[in-house]
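Protocol step 4 of 6: structure prediction from sequence.
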Amino acid sequence: MIEISESGMIFGAYEDDRVFRIEISKLHDKIGNRIKVVEFILMRKQNELDFIEAKSSSPKPIQDSEEKVEKFNKYIEEITDKFIHSFNLYYSAILGKNNHYNEISSKFLDLNNSILNFKFILVIKNHKEEWLVPILNALKRNLAYHNTIWKSDVIVVNEEIAKKYNLIKVNS
């Protein structure tokens, strides 16, 4: 079993062969630093891949100044890039375009990709529930083309909701 500590939260415990720690992988290291990636990819269910990004905070989507709007938009763009880059990097390894250095377990390699469900999950520590909706809406807008093509879902939760869904440990 593996636990992953990110942004002041402890994710897991998960079976080792159901997690690909893309952020600390040789695959990511060899590709280069311009590729932004999520913390890890999780196979929670047999036909589901969750791309998990953790943040300790986020800018509030307050429209009272151009600077705050720009900061929020930049945050959304960064998260969007992490989801898309991770998806592309993962599939470049699965399809043999990039060496995965035997870091991806056979459970991932044996998946029937034609029936997989994809979830892009952002977990924000100590975030009020009412602050989640604007972030979710902005990410859905940015990822609309991907969600249409791949039928992926975007989920934004705080630490309390993540605990209810057993993404993070209750005592984290």
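Step 5 (inspection) to follow. The chain has a mean pLDDT of 91.
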